[in-house]
Amino acid sequence: MKHLKIRQSILAGAALALVSTLAACGPKAPPVIAPPPPKMVVIPPQPMPPRGASPNLVTPPINTYGVRQTINTGISPAQTTWNLRSAYNVAALNCMDPKHAQILVNYREFLKTHAKKLTQVNKTVDNEFKAKFGPRFIAPRELYMTQVYNYFALPPTQSSFCDAALAMSNEAATLKSADIDSFAARNLPSIEQVFLRFYTSFDQYRVDLAAWQAKYMMTGTAPVPAPQPLSYQLSPTPAQAPAQ
């Protein structure tokens, strides 16, 4: 009886060993592979308007020849001189940084030295508006000059504008009245470049913003409002300018 139990134990162990051997020889279960971690999407900051400008600002249009149509485009020599004088007026009133203090000093001297020539230019501009609009030319001229003053008073450009105006005013300090028109023809485009560069950078901001919105904004997100014209605070009219 004892021998029978030993034999059964031996047979059971052999059977177990055989099962283990067969299991080891069978197909192996595929290894468990952990899924890759989710990719992190880094969303860059939304493009912002240059120099803290309002996102609703409207830039002057560019014509088919690639020329931006500003308040200073296609104007007469007399209007060029008067617009430069208007830019000088805005700078004298608005450029309050100590480094720009000489602008006001130079402007007062400019008005005093060239009073006769400036009066002549003003009359010429009046005649040009009268020829175009007839006896009721005053209203369109005042509207245009309001646009001129507001153009040069554009807040995001003030720092660069004041730098350009300071350079212009220093050059004007030695100017002869007979040379004012040629001086204006050279210097108004230089001051205009301040605004053209800003408008170009703002147009690029709109392009960058549209690309950012197309790539990162979720469907159903409220769109950015369409640009609307801004009304900036009007600079004082020539009659209110200092030392006139």
Attribute tags:
disordered C terminus, 57% helix, mainly alpha, elongated
Shape annotation: elongated
Seen as an oligomer or otherwise, the chain set is: single chain
Alpha-carbon Rg, integer: 38 Å
Annotation field: number of helices: 7
Distance between the termini: 136 Å
Strand element count: 0
| Structural class designation | mainly alpha
Low-confidence stretches are: 219-244
- Percentage of residues assigned to helices: 55-70%
Structure in words:
With 244 residues, the protein is an all-alpha fold. The chain has a domain at 76-217. The protein has helices spanning 2-25, 77-94, 102-113, 115-133, 138-152, 158-172, 180-216.
